Amino acid sequence: SVAETGLYTASDQVILLSQENIESVLINSSAAVLVEFYASWCGHCIAFSPVYKGLASDIKEWKPAVNLAAVDCAAEENRKVCNGFGIRSYPTIKFFHAYSKADSTGQAFKASTHDVRVLRHRIIDQLESHEEPWPPACPPLEPTSQAEIDSFFETNSVQHLALIFEDTKSYIGREVTLDLLQYENVAVRRVLSTEEGLVTKLGVTEFPSCYLYSPQGNLTRLKVNIEARTFYSYALQRLPGVVRSGKPLPVTLDVLNNSTEEPWRPFNRSRVYMADLESTLHYSLRVEVAAHTLIKGEALTSLKKYISVLAKYFPGRPVVMSLLKSVNSLLKNQTGDEISYDALREILDNSAQSPDTALPEGERWVGCQGSRPHLRRYPCGMWTLFHTLTVQAKNAGGTDPQEVLSAMRNYVHSFFGCRACAEHFEIMATESLVEVNTLSSAVLWLWSRHNRVNNRLAGDLSEDPNFPKIQWPPPEMCPACHTVKENGEHKWSKEQVLPFLLSHFSSSSILTDYLE
Ligand code: FAD
After folding, report:
1. Cα–Cα distances in Å, from 405 out to 211, 246, 285, 429, 433?
2. Which of 67, 111, 336, 371 has the fewest Cβ atoms surrounding its Cβ within 10 A?
3. Residue 420 CA to ligand 1 centre (angstroms)
4. How many CB atoms within 10 Å of residue 311?
5. Residue ID of nearest Cα to ligand 1 atom 6
């Protein structure tokens, strides 16, 4: 299908257009749409596709106002569509205003750059060029005035008004406004540094800077590490009372206690818990692997690698380590080409005979608790387990940089119950696992891929409203990890992220609360 042969897939936050859906997407849409007409064989298009994907993920919060789409003109079934729009060269990008008519062929959009920031600014310029009707989901982007602010809370029922003071040429105010588009209880306006009345009256001297304006007329500076778009957006999205549209308000502890079957276990969000790691082992070995009554071929190889890595690097209690070592020797000494799950179960459950060798039964989630029984838990534990293992391999001076990641890849491929997850993970592994050539780069690889998954899943149904998918670690957990490039774009400081991860997942930082 087009989805598989083209340059984009459904998980790129780009709408895949074809003969069948192009009209319904473009005509009379309440959002503006940016469309890339490309040919999958064209070198420029191939080179541009990561940029376009980067743009799509960068402005995914803007979707109700402006959507990104792409159509592969090299696909036979799309020829007519592309001819209809007069496309002669690839890639051609066009901007379709909201409520475009059936005969619209869009406006030219200059894509002559690989700089996501410049493309983002051009999108804002195009949005502002809308004559009526303006996309209804899009908040006003023009600078605010004293008059608007004075009567703001009379006409808007929001809790917070954020004012971004900036120079005329700056796009930050408009970017943050759009970043907050899908959040309720907060509005953002830009105030120009030339708006002297307001600026002097409010005593603002730094541009850009962000202030919260209260209904009582008080102005408080928004605290951020760096005065830049990502930092403003992140902080505003997390103000008290601010929620993503359509999501329930994060609930408080007593409500959680009533809505989950087990009593809620209070925990520190910035720590790793052994209870989660052991629960993950329990679920993985007693439930997930148990679904295979006979383990052979590829699955057997995967299981052997997984257990071997666990026996080597799992930072567990002596009883658990002793159990993992027994399982490992069983598998190592096993010479046939298959093994029954029952043979494995026997060792796992042998604690009656040897009480110093045991894997605790049952799940006891702590840092991976979800505010509903179907949220978080095992997949959260799986990530935590593998981050811990990559870090332990580094700390223990392992010899093969890919040992842990390759075991994870095989386990996920052979056993992980979430098949869509397994497919996505396999794509990422195929793409770039070969680049991992040191134990440190293995730690960073898993961290950055996990953030990609977080990025893709932000706002998804599987997101726990109490644990939003963020780019991790957040500024409050590791301030030094976050920095900006010269042009103000967010940048991870990898020299800081690595030591942070090594310490966060190190065996000495793992908390043993709630263990039996
Ligand atoms: P999780 O994403 O599970 O994270 C667990 C904890 O790890 C967080 O609470 C945080 O403390 C820490 N953390 C977060 N980000 C990072 C990071 N970048 N580096 C280090 N630590 C971090 N779900 C889907 O719907 N579609 C998928 O394609 C998909 N693919 C998956 C692939 C794998 C290999 C795994 C293990 C899970 C996948 N999932 C997928 C599940 C999804 O990623 C989450 O695990 C699940 O939604 C639970 O989310 P959570 O809020 O508990 O946080």
Report:
1. 44, 37, 18, 9, 8
2. 336
3. 13
4. 20
5. 380
Q: What's the token pair of residue 263?
A: 């009593």
Alpha helix ranges (H) inside 98-244: 116-128, 146-150, 152-155, 172-179, 196-202, 229-237
Point out the ligand 1 atom lying closest to the alpha carbon of residue 383: 36
C-alpha distances (whole Å) from 4 to each of 34, 75, 195, 378 are 21, 11, 51, 30
pLDDT digits (tens, 9 = 90+) for 411-452: 999 999 999 999 999 999 999 999 999 999 999 999 999 999
What digits encode the pLDDT tens for the residues 16-60? Answer: 999 999 999 999 999 999 999 999 999 999 999 999 999 999 999
3-class SS of residue 165:
strand
- For residue range 73-124, list pLDDT tens digits in order: 999 999 999 999 999 999 999 999 999 999 999 999 998 899 999 999 999 9
Nearest residue (CA) to ligand 1, atom 34: 425
- Please name the amino acid found at residue 336: G
Look-up: residue for tokens 């760096």?
226
311, two tokens:
């026996």
Please report, for residues 434, 436, 448, the alpha-carbon distance to residue 402 in angstroms, rounded to integers and kept in the order given.
8, 7, 15
Q: Are 186 and 230 in contact (CB under 8 A)?
A: no
Task: Please indicate whether residue 45 is annotated as part of the active site.
Answer: yes
Cα gap 111→5, rounded to integer Å: 23
| Coil vs helix vs strand at 122 | helix
Q: Is the pLDDT of residue 2 over 70?
A: no
d(CA 395, CA 507): 9
With a CB cutoff of 8 Å and minimum separation 6, the contacts of 171 are 120, 121, 124
Contact 413, 422 (CB under 8 A): yes
Closest by CA to 394, choosing from 313, 504, 280, 472, is: 313
User: Chain centroid to CA 38: how far?
Assistant: 27
Probe target for ligand 1 pocket from 378, 415, 426, 453, with the most ligand atoms within 8 Å of CB? 453
Q: In the chain, what are the domains? A: 2-128 (3.40.30.10), 146-244 (3.40.30.10), 256-509 (1.20.120.310)
Q: What is the DSSP string of 43-67?
A: HHHHHHHHHHHHHHHHTGGGTTTEE
For residues 192 and 148, what is the distance between their CA atoms, to the nearest angstrom?
A: 14
Q: Under a CB-based contact definition with an 8 Å cutoff, are residues 470 and 482 in contact?
A: no
* Size of the chain, expressed as the number of residues it contains: 516
Tokens, residue 106: 């869009």
Binning the chain into helix, strand and coil, the percentages to the nearest 5 are: 45, 15, 40
- Here the tokens at position 501 are 């991860």
For residues 347 and 342, give the distance between their C-alpha atoms in angstroms, rounded to a whole number.
9
pLDDT score at 254: 64
478 catalytic residue (yes or no): no
ipTM of the complex: 0.99
Phi/psi of residue 241, nearest 5 degrees: 90, -10
